[in-house]
Prior knowledge:
Helices cover about 45% and strands about 10% of the residues. By secondary structure, the chain is of the alpha/beta class. The model has no long low-confidence stretch (mean pLDDT about 85).
Amino acid sequence: MLADTGANLALLERLKDVGVRVALDDFGTGYSSMSYLRRFPFSRLKIDRSFIRDIGSSRESMAIVRAIIGLGANLGIDTTAEGVETGAQLELLRQERCGEIQGFLFSPPVDSVGALRIIDSYRSDESKVA
């Protein structure tokens, strides 16, 4: 999909026009590249969990996470931190103003019924809201 072809760009633009939001997953690793940010209409950058895992102990990981959050903010692209497992990671990401957080700190992967149960549990107790 990320091959730089006119057909792929046109498809992504059409999807965006009808309200589909496209995320660049595992940003900073593998096939993700900053050059894609200039060519494709991404709505979200998902920060790879390998960077999140070490933000409390690695100056380099924290710098990369901070840069991705800043890059997203400057480009008008939302950011999601993947793999948040500790309260300390959550607090560091809050301090950096990361837009969204996901990970086992909140819940393991669930189906739609499980997601509704989680949402309902937060509606009944305001003190649980992160």
